[in-house]
Design brief:
The protein has eleven helices and eleven strands. The chain is of the alpha+beta class.
Length: about 350
Amino acid sequence: MKFSTFLEWVNGLHLMGVIVAGSVVVGIILLRIMILWSAKKFSNTYPAIRSIVNWFTFYGALIFLLMYFSDSEWMFTSFLKIGKVEVTIFLIIVAILIISLASRISKISTSVFLPSLYNRYNLDKGLRFTFDRIIHYTIMVIAFIISLTTVGIDMSALTVFAGIISVGIGFGLQNIASNFISGIILLFERPIKVGDRVIVDEIIGDVEKINMRATIIKTLDNEHIIVPNSYFLEEKVVNRSFSDPRLRLVVPIGVAYGTDVEKVRELLLEVVTEEQEVTSSVLLHPEPFVNFVGFGESSLDFELFVWIADPNQFIVIKSNLNFRINRILSDHSIEIPFPQRDIHIRSVEKTIEKKL
């Protein structure tokens, strides 16, 4: 932009009009602060009120500026030229309105209108997230194209931009492009989806979000792990919720030698029945099974196999079973041994022997 053009643009501004417009905008912001301050006492509806007030504040200020300065010459004066396109304040404000309005429409669609449709067809959490992402990206791409057309940029110019992006990908953006494409594959192929419980590098967590570049996993310790999308397509990942949510839980037990093994099996199956009465996730079909592993160094080793319907309760149910097993074995005087070693002395020095 030439300096003379800038001076002409500044001279076209009416100082009094700018002061009035600025005062109105400041008044709108102060009104917003007062409304939000008054609405804090409505704790249940405050987030919704804040969202609505912010929406009206932002769009109200932009629309007011467009209407107030609609007859001003500086509003339509070009201050920047990109190729053959002359950029004006009016075009920038309109483009911002289009993109921000599209973002608001996307949020309203995914939070208000689509949930009722999801509930009607009983879609799971992962599929809902996929549709939300697709709709959001579609709306934003359309809004971006419309805003470029409104500003006056020829869409054929995007071919040059696409060429630049391709060169950038070839020299330094392979990883980003790989994760982006992997994210799209994850959303459609769905080897993992939002809500699944997965094991990544021996860390158990639930998939919270699948973003364009990375997937966010929330661990059982309430920590968040950010994993690149390509990891799930290139590495081995355990998905406990992939096709069948049922999971086999294995509880190892050791009892002392000389214990009635048939009695042990009977008591372990009784434990499962007791837990199933209070925990609906414990399944009796497939039937629980007691596996006699073998004869250990200091114990008779068993494994209790139990099927559960909800993998998210894996740790809780296993802990409950261990509590019940410890109690029922104690009630029937069945010993749970600990590792022991017998030392046999072949020879001792005469001095030590006399002292003994």
